[in-house]
Structure formats: C-alpha cells, structure tokens
Design goal:
Layout lengths: L15 E3 L16 E3 L2 E3 L3 E3 L8 H9 L3 E4 L5 H14 L9 E2 L5 H11 L4 E4 L5 E5 L1 H4 L14 E2 L12 H11 L3 E5 L5 E6 H7 L15 E4 L5 H10 L4 E5 L6 H13 L5 E6 L2 H10 L3 E4 L9 H5 L5 H11 L5 E4 L5 H10 L3 E4 L14 E3 L2 E6 L5 H11 L15 E4 L4 H18 L5 H7 L2 E3 L2 H7 L8
Parallel strand pairs: 4-5, 4-17, 5-12, 6-7, 12-13, 13-14, 14-15, 15-16, 16-17
Antiparallel strand pairs: 1-21, 2-3, 7-8, 8-9, 10-11, 18-19, 19-20
The structure holds xanthosine-5'-monophosphate.
Xanthosine-5'-monophosphate (XMP) binds next to strand 17.
Length: 475
C-alpha cells in the first residue's frame, strides 16, 4: 500500500499514561480546574452532552451548580427545548426581572401545572395591568385538596407583604430578609406594577463561588441546534429566552453545510458564543473556526453509544485526534467529545490540549438525567441511547415535523442501559477529585500548566493490565 494513504498510528486513552512529574503542589484543593468556554469562565472543565438521555434542565442546573455546563438536547420541539432553557435561567437569579405572574382567578389546578412546568412554587398575583395584588407560595396551597379553589382565596394579599420600590444591592436585600424573616421580596414601581422579585434562596445560592453564572448571576446554560430545517428559528427562540451558548451538534461537522450554518448563525447572533462540531482533523477545526465558531467540538466515533466507526469505517482515535489538532492549531479552543470512561481519561484529554471534555455515558444513569430508574435482572438501570440511532432520528422527525428526504443508517445504540448512579453531584465530585489528583501528579496548578508539562508514554497490553486491579477479589 502506498505509504501516504496511511496517516500513521493514532492512539487513544487506554494506550497511554501520563508521566508523573516533580510537583510544587502542597494541597490538591489549591489546584485551579477552571477553563474558558468562549467568553465564559467555568470552574470545572466538564460539559454534559446534548443527548436526550443526558441533558435537560435538571442536568443543566446540576452541571452549572457544580461549576460545569449543560447543553440542552435538540431532540424535541422548539417549544420544549425553550422551556428547558427557561427552567435553567429562572432557577437562580438574585433579581428575577420578569417573574411569572398569575391572576386572582387562576385555580389551584393551574398553579400546580405551572409548578410542573417551571419547577418553582411561588407566583406573584397581579391584575390585568400587572399591578401587584398578592403572592402565592407553597405553604398557601400545599395542604389544600380543592383544586378548583381560586388564587384570590389562597394568596397572601398585598397589604400583608413586604415590598420594595427600587432595585437594591445584594447586601441591602440580605438585611431586609433578616429583619422581616421573609423568603420573597417583590419589587414594584409607584403604581405597584411588578418590576421584579428577590428570593432568599437565590441570595443564599448566589454567595457560592463555584457555580457557573452569566453576567446577571443566572445559571449558565447552552443548547444544541442542527443545520437543517428549523435550526434558525430554533436558535432565535433559544436566544430570546436567554440561552448563553449555542452548540451546532451534528455528526459530520466538516460538511460544507455546517460551515455555512456557522457563518449564518454568527452573522445573525454575533453576541452569542458558538460551539460547533463534530470534527476529528486539524482541517475540520480550522474550517469551523474560520467560519466563526468560537470553540470546536472534536470527536468522530469515540462515544460509548456510537457505532459510526463500525458502520462507516470512519473516525480518528480520540486522544490522537486531539494531539494532532493541537499540534497544528494550538490556539483554537477545542472540546473533546466522547470516549471518556473515567476521570483518568478526562485528565488525558485535557492534558492533550482540550479546554474541556463533553460527557455522555459518565453522567447518564444519574438522578438528573432524563428518564426513570428501572430494575432489570435485579439491577437498577436507566436508558441511554445514541443520538444517531434510528430511534432518536425518528423521534426527532416526529417532534420537529421535519420531513426526511433520505433515511440514514443507524450510527448509535438504540436502547442501551447504564447502571443507576444516584446524584450527579456525587459523580462530579469524584471526577473533580480525580482531576485534582491527576493535575497534581503532572505538577500542574492549572490547565495551562497541564498543557505545557504533560507528557505521555505509550503502554503495552501488559501495561494496561497492570493499570487495573490485579490479583484481588472485588466484592
Ligand atoms: P460518551 O462516550 O461520553 O460520548 O458517552 C458522548 C458523545 O457521543 C456522541 N454520540 C454519538 N455518536 N452516534 C455517534 O456516532 C450516536 O448515536 C451518538 N450519540 C451520541 C456525542 O458526540 C456525545 O456527546
């Protein structure tokens, strides 16, 4: 075979180990794991994948609260995706500028469906001119069995509320909450029209420095879009409800159509950071970046639920792809997407040059991932499927009313199961500890030092065997 037809041997996570280095680190807690995703600085370089069994609002909220980032999947109607983004943006915000309001005639049944939709329990009661009439919160209706009861008969009326009529500082708000022992503080103008709402819980949460936030203090969230059909309308609506980052999430990011979509999106929404992918070559990264992407997502075929390499014969081993890209374009920020099975793989992906990693499988099976816990053969599991599976494709066509000109072959697991893992915060805490230790072994206080100092060795099969547990019984 002519030599130039083979680009060489590319390795991946299991083929290498990082060499331990002299380390200046006294305590692993001092290691800075923060990274930049476009203009945003996040404290944990981990992003949850836009898969319909991984990221909806619960996951995105947990990711942001743990210092990472969640990307809401696009395998649903625009309306549903928008709602999921809104749930995240409304979750924590020290001043809620546009609080959801209800009328005095709203029934308890309607309030309960709002609770289901938005995930919070307190609503301001207003008249048709947005004049504040009262406030209804959980304790006003928790034990009420009559679902037809009207809000006006349950709410705390305006006269009994503590309200303010100007926007105040965080410190001033804390003092008012302490003085009056209240949990909610509406803001109204001189005509009593609603200007905003402050909640004690948001103020408490706001003091935490780990959380990923936008400039208004709201949780950071991204959302995925495609390159066909309704993608521009989808992007427009997502931007309208405050999405922070758009992610072009397609199987082949080096399609000319993807490059065109990047250009169009960047010209329509220049203020919104754009992540685009997936590609696995320096040329792919260069072209997406030149078209306007702020960050490029790398990974063709490494995903745990992915059959692209088997079905099509195409892909590049993930670690080799990152190293190849970084050698040619060290300044273009990339996200390593897919193939990480443990925190060690994440350290390797970062050490090779990624700004962050995107995880599917490692976060699936948690409480915050969509879907119910099932018991199969006595074990608790949750569903995890590939987004290029026929199942996901058909679901997308149905939900988005898209017409298919051509039905592609399935490139993903149709109905996978993963072990139930409990809370994603615990999973992320363990990953974070693994990263801190990994950075410490490499002598790196932060990501920049890791990129500079990291060196890999290729290992043999015996080396791989030696790396796992050996000669002990696991119980
Ligand atoms: P992990 O290994 O973390 O990977 O589960 C998550 C990433 O896998 C990709 N993905 C797919 N790739 N066919 C593919 O070729 C699929 O059906 C599929 N579903 C997900 C995706 O990039 C995700 O972030």
């Amino acid at each position: 075979m002519p030599k130039k037809k083979i680009r060489g041997k590319f390795l991946t996570f299991g083929d290498v180990l990082l060499i331990p280095k002299r380390s200046p680190i006294d305590s692993r807690k001092d290691i800075d794991l923060s990274t930049n995703i476009g203009p945003f600085r996040i404290n944990l370089p981990i992003i949850s994948s836009p898969m319909d069994t991984v990221t909806e609002s619960s996951m995105a909220i947990a990711m942001a609260k743990n210092g990472g980032l969640g990307i809401i999947h696009r395998f649903c109607s625009i309306e549903d995706q928008k709602n999921e983004v809104e749930k995240v943006k409304r979750k924590e915000n020290w001043i809620i500028e546009n609080p959801i309001t209800v009328s005095p005639e709203t029934t308890l049944a309607e309030i309960l469906s709002l609770v289901e939709k938005y995930g919070f329990w307190t609503y301001l009661v207003v008249d048709e001119n947005r004049k504040l009439l009262g406030l209804i919160s959980k304790r006003d209706y928790l034990f009420c069995d009559d679902k037809n009861k009207k809000v006006k008969d349950l709410m705390v009326p305006f006269e009994k509320l503590i309200v303010i009529n100007k926007k105040i500082s965080l410190e001033e708000a804390k003092k008012i909450f302490e003085k009056y022992k209240i949990e909610k503080l509406p803001i109204v103008d001189k005509e009593r029209k609603v200007l905003g709402l402050i909640t004690s819980k948001d103020i408490e949460n706001f003091s935490d420095k780990k959380t990923s936030r936008d400039s208004k203090g709201r949780l950071l969230v991204g959302a995925a879009i495609g390159i066909k059909g309704d993608f521009l309308e989808r992007a427009q609506e997502l931007v309208r409800v405050g999405v922070d980052i758009l992610v072009i999430d397609v199987a082949h990011g080096h399609l000319e159509k993807t490059l065109k979509a990047v250009k169009t999106l960047k010209s329509k929404f220049p203020q919104i950071p754009l992540i685009a992918g997936n590609v696995a070559t320096p040329e792919g990264v260069r072209d997406l970046f030149s078209a306007g992407a702020d960050v490029v997502k790398v990974g063709i075929g490494p995903g745990s639920s992915c059959s692209t390499r088997i079905v099509t014969g195409v892909g590049v081993p993930q670690l080799g792809a990152i190293l190849w890209i970084k050698e040619k374009y060290p300044k273009i920020p990339i996200i390593s997407d897919g193939g990480c099975k443990n925190s060690g793989d994440i350290v390797k992906a970062l050490a090779a040059g990624a700004h962050a990693v995107m995880l599917g499988n490692m976060l699936a099976g948690t409480d915050e991932a969509p879907g119910k816990v099932m018991v199969v053969n006595g074990k608790r599991v949750k569903v995890f499927r590939g987004m290029s599976s026929s199942f996901a494709y058909e679901k997308k066509l149905k939900e988005t009313n898209e017409k298919a000109e051509y039905i592609p072959v399935s490139e993903g697991a149709e109905f996978g199961l993963v072990p139930y893992k409990g809370s994603v915060s615990e999973v992320l805490e363990n990953i974070e500890k693994g990263l801190r230790s990994g950075f410490s072994y490499c002598g790196a206080r932060n990501l920049k030092e890791l990129w500079k100092k990291a060196e890999f060795v290729e290992i043999s099969l015996s080396g791989l065997k030696e790396s796992g547990f050996d000669n002990i019984f696991l119980v």
